Amino acid sequence: MIHILITSHGGMAEGMMQSVKMLVGEQEHLDYVTFGEEMGSDELDELYGEKITSVSPDNQYLVLCDIKGGTPFNVVSRYSFKNEDVAVIYGMNLPILIEAIVQCGNPDIKLKDLAEYLQQQSGSTIGLSEL
């Protein structure tokens, strides 16, 4: 099973959770962590440790972060450096999150394949509205 954890500075991750619920309903294996203004990296790491548990090939985690190089990305990336059953993607947006949820419905999907697929799809999730 692949769990999806979304994380961001401020309320972005929580807002995305609300949007997902509105668009595709409650998702059992979706959770979020918010990096608040008054938090330090140690406190943030504790929150990730509470969410990313019992990691194994049967219990994998896809983490979607807001931006590369930010504290949430830097802290949670340590989990992926230590364990191939955790993958971290930066540049999170709502279309990619929904696509990840849909793809996780396939019981045969592998974390590495899912992460590569989402990275390939990311270019099609933004565009310019033209008449």
Descriptive notes:
The protein has 5 helices and 4 strands, in the order βαβαβαβαα. By secondary structure, it is of the alpha/beta class. The chain has one domain: Rossmann fold, CATH 3.40.50.510. Strands 2-1-3-4 form a 4-stranded parallel sheet, sandwiched between helices. Helix 2 (41-51) crosses helix 3. The N and C termini lie far apart (43 Å). The mean pLDDT is 95.
Keywords:
131 residues; alpha/beta; Rossmann fold; 5 helices; 44% helix; globular; Bacterial_PTS_sugar_comp; PTS_IIA_man
Describe what is shown at a glance:
The protein is of the alpha/beta class and 131 residues long. It has helices at residues 12-24, 41-51, 71-82, 94-104, 111-121; strands spanning 2-9, 30-35, 60-65, 86-90.
CATH topology: the name is Rossmann fold
Q: Which CATH architecture is right?
A: 3-Layer(aba) Sandwich
* Helix and strand sequence: EHEHEHEHH
Overall pLDDT score:
95
How many discrete domains?
1
Task: Determine the number of helices (DSSP H or I, runs of at least 4 residues).
Answer: 5
- Annotated CATH homologous superfamily: Phosphotransferase system, mannose-type IIA component
State the major sheet.
4 strands, parallel
Strand percentage lies at 15-25%
Silhouette: globular
Helix content: 40-55%
Structural category = alpha/beta
Total strand segments: 4
- What is the CATH class designation? Alpha Beta
